[in-house]
Amino acid sequence: MLKNSWKRFLSPALDLIYGFFYVLLGIIHFQRLFLRFQRTSDETNMNHQRVKYRQVFLLPILLLSWPGNAQDISRIFSDVVLRLDTSEFSLASDQVIYLDKSHLAFQFTDPDPVCEISLHAAPGRSLAGLELLPSGDFELIDSLLKINGETIRFKVRFEDLVNTNYLKFTFAPRDSLLRDSGLLELNLLPYTPTYLKLYPVSDELYIGEEKVFELLTNNMENIRFERDWVEGGNLNYRISKTFNQIRIHIVAKSLGKQVVSVPVKLKKPILGENGEPVFDLPVIEHTFLVRESRLQFLNVDRNEVTLDDSTQSQGIEIQIDNSRLLKMQKTYRIEKQEEPGGSLIAEIFTKNSLTNNEVLCVLRVYNYHRKSDGYLYIKDGDVARFITNFEITPRTSVKKISIMRDGNWSQSLSVYPGETIDMKIEGIGLHKANFTFEELENVSSSDSLIRGEQMALYKFRVPMDVSKRRLELFNHAQPTGISLNVREYQEPRPFDFIWVDYQGERNKISGLPPTLLIDGTIQNLIFGSDPDRIDTPEKLYGKQYLRLDITITGRRNELIEVKTIDNFVICPGLKSPRSDNYNHSDCGINQFDLNKYFRKKTSNLEIWSQIKLRVSHQKDKYNGGGFTQEFDMILRKSHSFDVEVSFPAGLITVSKPNTDSDDQRIGQLTGISIAMIAQFTFYHPEKINIQRPYKIGAGFLALNTFNFSDDAANRDIGLVVLGSLYPTTKDVKLTFPLYFGGGYQLKSQKWFFLIGPGIRIRL
Questions:
Q1: What is the C-alpha to C-alpha distance for residues 541 and 533, in angstroms, rounded to an integer?
Q2: Which of 186, 420, 586, 748 is the most buried (most CB within 10 A)?
Q3: In 3-state terms, the chain is what percent helix, strand and coil (to 5)?
Q4: Where does the pLDDT of residue 366 fall: very low under 50, low under 70, confident under 90, or very high at 90 and above?
Q5: H or E, element range at 160
Q6: Would you say the pTM of this structure is higher than 0.90?
Q7: In angstroms, rounded to a whole number, what is the distance separating the alpha carbons of residues 693 and 723?
Q8: Are residues 401 and 517 in the same domain?
Q9: Would you call 70 exposed, middle or buried from its count of C-beta atoms within 10 A (0-12, 13-18, 19+)?
Q10: Last residue of one domain, picked from the residues 343, 361, 394
């Protein structure tokens, strides 16, 4: 840090020194041009004069380009402070020179931290109009907040600091006071504490034996290592990463005490004692005692051999370490045990020696072997001469494929467009496989991918536009005979795509009330759908299999007609992502008039007739699921007109005399009369077929048809306008309405008014 502070202090002085030398060189260059101009001839003088002028004009440009005029970010910012968790880092105290550039160094542990940054303006500078340019390395959470003219604060979230290189903030000045500065770059250097240590459980190794030890670390993602074997010296080693462990594999080649030295690189540095970035961890060193095996170990250039018909009958060529005891053109047995009588694992036929101190052999395998089972003994007859070790594994074979459905593994090999599936492949020799499916995208991450000899887990995405019905499984570009079946979605969708038109206006049935009271007649009853609403780019439902049940009853609830429309299929429209892939052979028309299915048309239905519609998904197509929508359509009127015959009895009449005298008298109680009235019946507006308790009409009244008085001469026929009040009880057959009204008696030729009860019988 002290070194960096001195460099910042000396920077202005160095700029002045550089400027002085540039001016001095310009003056010397100008003098030489002037002397040459005096010694030349007139013609040459003109040519050199043009050269002189060009170079003299270059002098101001040269002066303007000296290092002292280069814009330094410290001229704009007096300090930059970065706050992370409870730590604070500033450009004044945490500046590091890396790759000949100044960097603000800060320590992190979380690879995706949220940081707050404060920018402080240099004296005489204003940060108004400063803009942070976007970058894929971070996300701006809080926009730039100007605290005052000299301080700006904002907040960012970094993305994967471990694997991000050349991290920087780039500012674009918009204010005229900063516009001459161009783009301002603040270089950042994230560092994180990291260690990697080796604590072996045993310090003994044996010639040719591979030992594996765990390396302890606090930051696995920051370790940079090569997966290949590092050969040279007396020990070969390689570093591997398995699940959440880093391990070192060591193979000894020489006897005695041998030291393994493993250099380790880091992705993000640690800070050294002087504050400089360090990308190398201390070398991992450990001393092992290498002991000699009882038999000489011969390395084979193949770690694994597949047992199949070819390797069993014809064999494969391998290279094995040479030995003075190994004879050419000879067949050796390979067994699992050193003692005689072991089972035959393989045979090696030595062909000839190679210049690289290896022997070219033909290996034929007959049985399986794992390295973990122990060494293999190379025998001359029944006598063991050498030891070696390699794996003999079965040929890759897939026995079963399972797909996760609803948290459970299912053996159904059906997949659907657009879905992401977890797949488990079971068999033998799967660790050697390279599985691919036609048109499927392998989205397995390194953390979720699990592969073993008998099981492999994958994650695949089925493209929305998958075109094939069968997706073949390939292993190393060779078909395995196993395939997935691509099925279209067949899920019930709510009935927001179904509509009904009963009065010239389409209504979605999902928004209709259970009961519709319709004024007037229904000329056409259109049932239809909007196929473009079934599928969306986010969700597929597939073909909709519907059932339509229709029941029509009359005003007295008598059954008029029952109709069922089965196997009514609606296919998604052209806007569906899978429109071209559906089989449209069984798709019905999108709309039709239900009247074509009725014997009695809807236009001929009487008042208070009822049409009951029930739309449902076919249960057998959706494993017993689906939606059901029911609604009733009832024809209604506010009133009705009919002719009724009733028997008013005991009417009290008020007769008006024919003369101009005021003799108006109340008549006596009449007998039973007969009334034939054309009258209006009124209905309750919010209830179904509920009549109002009153009626009004006009017609004929035969007074005293059944006379109860002493004088029968008062029989008469009148033209009347009658109102009647009926009891509201519906289920009574015999009722006694109350009549009132008036009219004109044809026989007596006088006007009269009447009121009285009557008799009404419902059959």
A1: 10
A2: 186
A3: 15, 50, 35
A4: very high
A5: none
A6: no
A7: 11
A8: no
A9: exposed
A10: 394
Answer yes or no: are the C-beta atoms of 269 and 223 closer than 8 Å: no
| Helix segments in 65-168, DSSP class H | none
If residue 146 lies in a helix (H) or strand (E), which one and from where to where? strand 138-148
Q: What is the pLDDT of residues 643-688, one digit of tens each?
A: 777 777 656 677 666 555 555 555 556 667 777 787 777 676 666 6
Pick the closest to residue 593 from 464, 670, 504, 668 (CA basis): 504
Amino acid at 79: D
Q: Rounded to an integer, what distance in angstroms lies between the CA atom of residue 558 and that of residue 551?
A: 11
Q: Is the pLDDT of residue 38 over 50?
A: no
Q: How many residues does the chain have?
A: 763
HSE toward the beta carbon, residue 635, CA cutoff 13 A: 24
Cβ-based neighbours of 279, under 8 Å, separated by 6 or more:
265, 266, 269
Give the SS3 label for residue 440.
Answer: coil
Pick the range with the lowest mean pLDDT from 220-224, 498-502, 600-604.
600-604
Phi, psi (deg, nearest 5) at residue 18: -60, -40
Shared domain check, 183 and 85: yes
Q: What is the pLDDT of residue 729?
A: 64
Q: Which residues contact 649 (CB under 8 A, 6 or more apart)?
A: 671, 672, 673, 756, 757, 758, 759
Q: Enumerate residues 6+ apart whose C-beta is below 8 A from 147.
A: 153
| Angle 209-214-220 from CA coordinates, rounded to 5° | 135
Angstrom CA distances, 222 to 107, 136, 676, stand at 13, 20, 106
**Domain count of the chain?**
7
Confidence of residue 44 (pLDDT cuts 50, 70, 90): very low
For residue 697, count CB atoms less than 10 angstroms from its CB and return exposed for 0-12, middle for 13-18, buried for 19 or more: buried
Structure-block tokens of residue 477? 């570009």
Its domain, for residue 251, covers 196-291
The mean per-residue pLDDT over the stretch 102-130 comes to: 90
Question: Considering only CA atoms, which of 171, 145, 139 is closest in space to residue 157?
Answer: 139
Residue 758, SS3 per DSSP: strand
* Residue 386 CB burial class (10 angstroms; 0-12, 13-18, ≥19): buried
Give the residue from 606, 636, 666 where a domain finishes. Answer: 636
Give SS3 for 522.
coil
Identify the CA nearest to 501 among candidates 509, 510, 491.
509
Letter for the amino acid at 75? R
Residue with tokens 């009347």: 720
Distance, in Å, from the CA atom of 236 to the CA atom of 233, rounded to the nearest integer, reads 7
Q: How far apart are CA 12 and CA 101, in angstroms?
A: 17
Q: How far is CA 339 from CA 345, 365, 378, 583, in A?
A: 14, 20, 11, 69
One domain for residues 508 and 623:
yes
Are residues 630 and 661 both part of a single domain? Answer: no
d(CA 624, CA 141): 49
Strands, E, within 159-255: which ranges?
A: 168-173, 184-191, 196-198, 204-206, 210-217, 223-224, 235-242, 245-252
Q: Which residues pair with 392 in a beta bridge?
A: 305, 369
Q: Which two tokens stand for residue 513?
A: 């009330």
Question: Over the stretch 441-497, which tens digit does the pLDDT of each residue have?
Answer: 888 876 556 778 888 888 899 998 888 889 999 998 888 888 999 998 889 999 999
Distance CA 511, CA 519 (A): 19
